[in-house]
Amino acid sequence: MNTNPALFEDETTEAVPDDLGPTGRPWPDLPEPRAPHAGPKRAVIIAMTNQKGGVGKTTTSINLGAALAETGRSVLIVDFDPQGSASVGLGVNPHTLDTSIYNLLLGREADPTDVIIDTGVDHLQLLPANIDLSAAEVQLVSEVAREQTLRRVLAPLRNSYDVILIDCAPSLGLLTVNALTAADHVIIPLECEFFALRGVALLTDTIQKVTDRLNPELAVLGIVGTMYDGRTLHSREVLERVVEAFGDKVFHTVIKRTVKFPETTVAGEPITSYASASPGAEAYRTLAREVLVRCPDA
């Protein structure tokens, strides 16, 4: 396969037949989302991570969380990026926060219930972040079991939610290692663009190291293609290469480019409520169904 990015420019090709889906594989039979488990809760924790910025981590965290909440699951989104992008995307101004996840990481007297914010979306709550979180990476270096800090913060919250989604910072630093140590699963959003592929090997190597040394239960739930444009040879070849490399780890659902996603950020709400009937909203609902099939404990 030709992977020279210069040869991708402006080339177009016919879309993959609908019965195969954009990944070139037959669409799986996805059942209707089952009801949440009855009885005591124990949240499944999923880290949304990729050290490359601008690949759709925050967009996927917010909209997958909202799509899961539509199924009746109680969902907590943990904004673990000092830029506070998930907070902004859910209508919170990070600069006006009195407390954030930073206070929970470094102040044992802080109460999570005083920090968690209702989003206005049923069953969806937010643990917000702001620029204070950037100091945590430095301050945690001197802490005992510093990689376990987020796990400690989330432990008392697991009985209150069905799913906890951690929106990670675009790095492989201590904050991301904390998220991977706290998580049960990883979802890797991957922009369907040539240069986005280059960091995947480094990311999977970091995940393997965390699995070997800190969190043996950690597993990659899947890779989701984002910013996909099936009209271009570039997007199709990148997605084909990802499927060749990772096989069934690649979700069948891909997230296509749409102007609706930037609009939802301005509106401060998920696409599932801002443009409920849009293709983007339907894509995240389908992704939620795939996640529930792959993660039966959620």
Describe what you observe in this structure.
This protein has a single domain (39-294), classed as Rossmann fold (3-Layer(aba) Sandwich), CATH 3.40.50.300. It has twelve helices and eight strands. The protein has helices at residues 57-70, 85-89, 101-106, 112-115, 133-139, 149-154, 174-182, 200-213, 233-246, 260-267, 271-274, 279-294, and strands at 44-48, 75-80, 117-118, 124-127, 163-168, 185-191, 219-228, 250-256. The protein has an eight-stranded mixed beta sheet with strand order 3-4-2-5-1-6-7-8, sandwiched between helices. α1 (57-70) crosses α12 (279-294). The chain is globular and about 55 Å long.
Look at the structure and give the CATH class: Alpha Beta
User: What's the β-strand tally?
Assistant: 8
Overall average residue pLDDT? 91
Strand content: 15-25%
Going across the biggest sheet, name each strand in turn: 3-4-2-5-1-6-7-8
Query: Structural class of the helix and strand makeup?
Result: alpha/beta
What best-fitting shape do the alpha-carbon axes yield?
A: globular
Give the biggest beta sheet.
8 strands, mixed
Order of helices and strands: EHEHHHEEHHEHEHEHEHHH
Q: Which bin fits the share of residues in helices?
A: 25-40%
Poorly predicted runs of 5 or more residues: 1-16
Assigned CATH architecture: 3-Layer(aba) Sandwich
CATH overall fold name: Rossmann fold
Rg from alpha-carbon coordinates: 19 Å
Please summarize what this structure is.
The chain has helices at residues 57-70, 85-89, 101-106, 112-115, 133-139, 149-154, 174-182, 200-213, 233-246, 260-267, 271-274, 279-294; strands at 44-48, 75-80, 117-118, 124-127, 163-168, 185-191, 219-228, 250-256.
